[in-house]
Amino acid sequence: MEIRLADLTEEALKGIGHMITPRTWSPPRPGDEHSYADTRDDLGLPAPCSSGVVECAPRPRVIRRMERHVRTPEVLVCLDGEAVVCLAAPQESIGGGLKDIRALKVRAGEGFVLDTGAWHAIPFPAGSTPARFLVIFKSGTGRDDLQYCDFASSPVVTG
């Protein structure tokens, strides 16, 4: 199975999550120190939250495994590099696979919230250098709320 690459947009995340960074940005007006834009009133994260940074090594864009968290949403913000993030809406794995997997290109500075139970693979760097992501979710999620789907037939991202 091949998965076509698309840009990260609110529409591309429909049923999986939501953007937390604006698609366009207004720079500070002349004489102003900054500009600011509210992007989301509630991220839906239960307290207490923890953060971490994941550095993703360059590798072939073959999805062997995806993971999900069934008790909390997850925030991902690309800190460095460009990456391809593979996502799927919350669902039960059927026969070692998932339906409607999307591959989205994420640029440095872009971030999004994954809905509770949404599937995601470790991001693939878009080029030959690693990509780094800030990860925020409920404390203990990586230890106590982690489910995997190991693919019987590994999908490949194209484009």
Describe the structure.
The protein has a single domain, classed as Jelly Rolls. The chain is 3% helix and 39% strand. The protein is mainly β and 159 residues long. Strands 1, 6, 7, 9, 10 and 13 form a 6-stranded mixed beta sheet that branches. The protein has a 5-stranded antiparallel beta sheet with strand order 2-8-5-11-3, with no helix packed on it.
Which descriptors apply to this entry?
mainly beta; Jelly Rolls; five-stranded antiparallel beta sheet; 13 strands
What overall form do the CA principal axes indicate?
Answer: globular
Secondary-structure element pattern, one letter each = EEEEEEEEEEEHEE
Work out the number of β strands: 13
Annotated CATH topology: Jelly Rolls
Task: Please summarize what this structure is.
This protein is mainly beta and 159 residues long.
Topology of this structure?
Layout: E1 2-7, E2 17-19, E3 49-56, E4 65-68, E5 74-80, E6 83-88, E7 102-106, E8 111-114, E9 119-120, E10 124-125, E11 131-138, H1 141-144, E12 147-150, E13 156-158
Parallel strand pairs: 1-7, 1-13
Antiparallel strand pairs: 2-8, 3-11, 4-12, 5-8, 5-11, 6-7, 6-9, 6-10
